[in-house]
User: Fold these one by one.
Assistant:
Number 1:
Amino acid sequence: MNKNFVLIGASGYIAPRHMQAIKDTGNDLVAALDKNDSVGIIDSYFPQADFFTEFERFDRHLEKIKRKGTKIDYVSICSPNYLHDSHIRFGLRHGADVICEKPLVLNPWNLEGLKEIEEETGKSIYNILQLRLHPAIIALKTLVENGDLDKIYDIDLSYLTSRGKWYYTSWKGDLSKSGGIATNIGIHFYDMLTWIFGDVLDNVVHIHTHDRAAGYLQLEKARVRWFLSIDYNAIPDAIKSTGARTYRSITVDGKEIEFSGGFTDLHTLSYQEILSGNGFGMEEAATSIDIVHEIRRQQPIGLKGSYHPFAELPLTPHPFSSKNQIQELINQDEQFVSKESISEN
């Protein structure tokens, strides 16, 4: 029997993958919400879906069709990171299960409140952790599980996905809304690494600016040097010469793990697993949320200790800062950390 979905955050980059997954699994998108109306992509998947730019009208519509007998089975969430918590609660209170993009929430303590509502409503919250379904990552996990149990692996993680000036005027460039670089583009890698190599023993941040972050994770079975960036200039020249604007690399003991392809169908696989009762719940999301929260709270130590080689690359000035841009961003980070500390207490 077909399931009815609604989608919150229909105009974002990742929303079409959710639309494709809903269609591929034989289900229906009955309504969508986004404050921006550039959502013509819906026509490629569900042209009959109702669309709203105002939450109040969206809420009223769902209540109306509910009273007429149309049950909403799932609420899919692709909204800005800082709104996930609220939109998840909305979905649960509407009597639906929820499928949410990563990060599930920005702060570890947000999970506690969601767990209570999940138990009260009897509905479930699922997080999209698609790297766990990638064949190359599954193969790596199998290799580690079947290998020397005492071995500590040396890993370098590099993920560079260039973004233009628009990034800094969107919610993604606002630390309080996105959580910063490590949260916005790195959280699924931290999830993948801890899924394979175990819990975090040490978490060190070397650099954390507007366009990059670098650090070191000591895991139970791995030493991880990581580097994340949205700066096109940081992409290796050999990659730029091909016209590519994204570079992914994971080396394990110096050996490259090939996982550059195979990403297009992972959301559909995620939906298939969720619909069959095997989705990733809040418990699976908790470790990576702890990691990125700790990264935000730390003062970077600079190029000391075991740092990723890309951390030595020259910084690119913030496009909208005329002077002292790095210090201004550090101050912004410190203010956000201070607010988090107050909230936590």
Number 2:
Amino acid sequence: MKTLRDLLTEIDYTLIQGSLDVPAADVVYDSRKDCKDKVFVCICGTTRDSHEFIPQVAEKGASAVIVERDVEIPEGLTAIRVNSARRALAELSAAYFDHPTRKMTTIGYTGTKGKTTSTYMLKEILEKAGKKVGLIGTNGAVIDGTFHATKNTTPESYELQNYFAQMVQAGCEYMIMEVSSQGLMMDRVAGIHFDLGIFTNLSPDHIGPNEHKTFEEYRYWKGQLFTRCETGIVNADDPNCEALLEGHTCRVLTYGCKDNDDYRAENIRHLKEGAFMGAAFDLAGKADFPVQVGIPGLFSVYNALSAIVPALTLGIDPETICEALKHIRVNGRMELVYASEDFSVIVDYAHNGVSTRSLLTTLRDYQPKRLVVVFGCGGNRDPHRRYEMGEAAGEMADLSVVTADNSRNEAVENIMADIHIGLDPTGGKSVDIPDRREAIRYAIAGAQPGDVIAIIGKGHEDYQEIAGVRTHFSDKEEAEKVLKEMGRI
């Protein structure tokens, strides 16, 4: 069994009381868990300060506590003081799990949009090259093909290090993760030095009382990834790129669509040929080869670049990269469920006005005869999102099928009525079908030649929450059921 001394080798600390040679059977930060012979880290959260629970964890047999302020320590309990308990939690966890990230090539993605799709693109490329890969992000953790659900885009540091250790045990050579601004600010990724850091794009998000106070603060924390990596790979076309890189300590490679980008996409075009619907471009600059991406839209070109450049940097050959991207599918992110000469069906996570308008604008570029969108909105959330999604759908789609999403504790009919506040003034055609399963069936069974049908709002989610109860529900699965009944798949 490790001792506390074993876990403190890379931490600045002061021994307040006790011995460093007490057992360290594990590291915990939740006082409700088993604490016997474990090191308890006192985290100051937004609602509770776990320094309050020191007497309880002492009674439960904790071997030591990590504190960041003066507090009464029960007799016989070892106490260590640090400047930041969150940073200490990350460093202690890394040491407890034997620093697993040092045994893999580590790749971190940051940005407002595109992180999930880009990470899965790179994962697909590396796996196509025969590599074992672990991934952590919005959709959960994937360790050598096994899925684990996660609560946050960037989980707490202990959970992260636990996943990393599982990756090493599974033989993963590469670790890819989405690195959120909150993950950087709250030291969840402290102690990880990334081999590659990738920046996708930046726009206002996560700004509020419990997140970032200003856009500038949000941008600052995103930029901190580039003080913690060897090579930064950045979207130089984004207007925030230069400010985000301020103070960076890494080598920088750029990508985009402009002439001075190190890697750039030229001759971009939309492709819809039979069962293929996506984008194509010619890569130029430091590498030169044609690329097809099996996800529609200009943003898929940028996402592809953010996977191509890291792959090339890691020594993956162009043929493998192109083969992976041509057949790429990302669960719930502009996911092409079905495509033919007759019609296409797409599932996407777009769940606000901006993302809905962006998605529908992208699909318009493929010149469908009709653009049909199936959507609802979540209950117990800001009603303005409903107005904005309704307005975007009314203006951009030929037919809106308004239905339920996760209504939670609100009546579906009330949520749909709010959607119509934004939709109806546009004059857009719509139909109301409260049952989401039936709404999907209606849209697909009634497909006309040339239709593109977008089922949006839930994306990768595999549940529906109604009246506080969650039941299994997948937009993709429901669409496939109808397509099978129609003899399409």
